Amino acid sequence: MNRYTKRTFVLEVVMIAVALAFAFPVYVLINLAVRAPSDTSSPISPTVAPTLGNFTQAWQEAGLGGALLNSVLVTAASVLIVLAVSSLAAYPLARSTAHWSRGTFLLILLGLVLPFQLASLPLYQTVRDLGLLGTVWSLVLFHAGLQVPFTTFLYVGFLRAMPRDFEDAAAIDGCTPLATFRYVVLPMMKPITLTALVLNAVSVWNDFFTPLLYLSGSDQQTMPVAVAGFVGQFVSDWNLIFAALLISIVPVLAVYLALQRSIINGFAGGLKG
């Protein structure tokens, strides 16, 4: 029989305090997002007369509709390319015992060590020469290349810990390496795939520097850049900023709630593997 001890009470108090610490910024965000601009009271004090006008104004003034579509397109295309390339590259790297396998893997890991800021200028010139400046495809190309080393590293670590019994059985049945990967290995990599999907999607969705650099001077923008448009040198519309932030959170939150069980299982399985 479990007993309610002093240690249990202390743990509950600590967890409640941690929960309140995380909930407080969310409360301030929602509180200011529904507050009228004329209300200059403390951000902590509850809004007496909440309004949804800030959301409508933020949507219209910042062109959040187009920015939202661009962010969804860039994130979906980038993550799809990264997962496809990284999983295909990781399989031979994890299973091959040849000398080239280790050398190639170390070469890919250089992408984790070298900061991309060192190559900002040549990357910008390359994108310009390709005629992709001012288009969302420049962001897809950039993120697809940037995230592959990290994602390949995750896949290789997972594959090396995964037994080869099913692959050997598929080979005995006459499956080619590509068929073995598609029908046997790929379904077994679902935990790490979901983990990589979440990590890459959040990274691409929240990126601010790259869209600001590659989409500058065009009418295209992503959600972080559109939200930053409300911040000026002398005047900042904080109510509109927080309303726009809430709008930008909705797609990510909706996907998380829809895939909550799979994402949690994916993280647990990926970390365990």
How would you portray this structure in words?
With 273 residues, the protein is mainly α. The protein has 2 domains: 6-51, no CATH class; 61-221 and 254-272, MetI-like (MetI-like fold, Orthogonal Bundle). It contains 13 helices and no strands. It has helices at 6-33, 53-61, 64-95, 99-113, 120-129, 136-161, 165-172, 177-188, 190-205, 209-214, 223-228, 238-258, 260-272. Helix 2 (53-61) packs across helix 12 (238-258) and helix 4 packs across helix 6. The longest helix is centred in the N-terminal third of the chain and has 32 residues, at 64-95. The radius of gyration is 23 Å and the shape is globular. The mean pLDDT is 84.
Shape: globular
Let me know the number of strands.
Answer: 0
Radius of gyration: 23 Å
Q: What share of the residues lie within helices?
A: over 70%
- The percentage of residues in β strands lies in under 5%
Low-confidence stretches: none
Per CATH, the superfamily of the largest domain is: MetI-like
Q: Could you say which structural class the secondary elements and strand pairing correspond to?
A: mainly alpha
CATH topology of the largest domain: MetI-like fold
Largest sheet: none
Number of helices in the DSSP assignment: 13
